[in-house]
Amino acid sequence: MSVLAVAEHRRGDLRDVSLELITAGRRLADATGGDLDVVVVGGDVDAFADRLDREGVDTVYTVDEGEEFNHEVYADAVEQLHAELEPTALVAPNSVNGLDYVPAVAERLDVPLITDVIDFEAGDGIEVTREQYGGKVETAYDVDADQYAVTIRPAEYPKAEASGDATVEAFDADVADDLGTTVNGFEEVGGGDVDITEADVLVSVGRGIEEEDNIPLIEELADTLGATLSSSRPIVDNGWLPKNRQVGQSGKVVTPDVYIAVGISGAVQHVAGMKGADTIVAINSDPSAPIYDIADYGIVDDLFEVVPELIEAFGGEAPDV
Amino acid sequence: MKVLVTVKEVAEVDDEFRISGLDIDEGSLEYDLNEWDDYAVEEAVQLSEADETDDVEVVTVTVGPERAEETVRMALAKGADRAVRVWDDALAETQFLDLDAKAELLAAIAEEEEPDLVLSGVQAADDTNGATGVALAERLGVEWAAVVNAMELDADAGVASVRRELEGGVEELTDVELPAVLTIQTGINEPRYASLRGIRQAQRKPLEVYDLDDVGLDESVVDSPVERTDMYEPESEGNATVWEGSPEDTAESLAEFLRDEGVVDA
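^ Those are the sequences you sent over. The predicted structure of the assembly is below.
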């Protein structure tokens, strides 16, 4: 069998997940001793090809079309290269952009697609592991097909580091030039008064706080500890705290000395933003919450009981909420 | 113009749950409108309300059993005009609907309805595939954009100007020609609660139910090369030290720890 992995880059930088795909793709190809080919579409393809030339890669295909990601260009290029190479497995990142073109490519190629794969075993077809129901369970799926596509969750596999001796080959794709989707630019969001990535101690609030009116309780805790207040996504979605406070995949990646997660379940997107903290403390009443998989210390109890006690332990006064 | 919103009833799992066979035990599940779809419904209803000519029709489409009508009525109560639900014994009997099956079922409805815009949640909270909207667009041969957290519609020009929420606090500014499928991210708006009046009105709004035959498909739609073979609780990777005792005790343990760490001056 052979594997075709699609690299990802943005604004001039190859994203880490591209090198993770090489590790995953090599493992998949090794199951039957086949080739691992990598394709990079758009941007400075030669420089990217250099970085993608890691141990275990047989050929890096470059498609010199466009600067930034455009799903129509990607879908056309990947579909055409796929038709030429006929790989068993098409491997792509389970990223925002990955999910913007891979489902379309899988439809066109009429191959089954399994997204957000965290582990796999290749044999006849492939058996993949996914999470479901917010990470409460894992499920295994058997894919009985000669060709298939998978998107791999970022940060599940180590980056391929060792340099390789891959052939680099330009692939001349015939991509649509009348694009119905036009990317006009990018904008950084979440600036403002505070930079949570600079904080040594973060007190972070999640869905467990239940109501906007209860936020002052956590603000008071942060103030009492001399810490900075941050949050998980739902708090920002609800407009209870500004976007610059959001920790996670679509927010900020933080690496404080101490991270106190209050009422945060620890969804994978959140964990991606805070697992680098030196010490993680969780206050969450659900003992099976995934936050306890990465926490160093925990209090399995009602935050509305614990937090006021904690504020008082430092001589503060808990607001009535 | 017509806006089609894909609406899924999702299963939420209790903190304490049991697995029976290859799925969560029915007794451990509660059903609700998928959170992402709630934002998609709100976005569609806001488009309809903002249109002064009162010319925007919002139609929801659901693939699900009769139980899902509670969820569908909730979308109607929030302001959708009418609803379509597709279900069939053949769908009920299958282990799960794969991506292809979902896209095919939704496409059958969309081809009938011919919407100018389809709004779909980024993902469903239960199986988090995150792929149905884009697969649907490809099947319909229309444009799309995934993970949209802001949008502005120029119906005359036939263009949706959207922001796609990329990782790391970066947004991509993109123009998408209509017709299109946009997958809607949470936070794009503030979903309303259904009013009592809305709930009453929803009872009288049309809710059509189709089976496979009605939408021009047959049982082969559920054929899938993908089979679920296992479901289990992942072993906790954690080795957290859990402080025990009353809230006063546990708070004191944490306070002591924070003092020892030098986080707070003793």
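Chain A has two domains: 3-170, 196-313. The CA atoms of residues 2 and 86 of chain A lie 8 Å apart.

Shout if you want it in another format.
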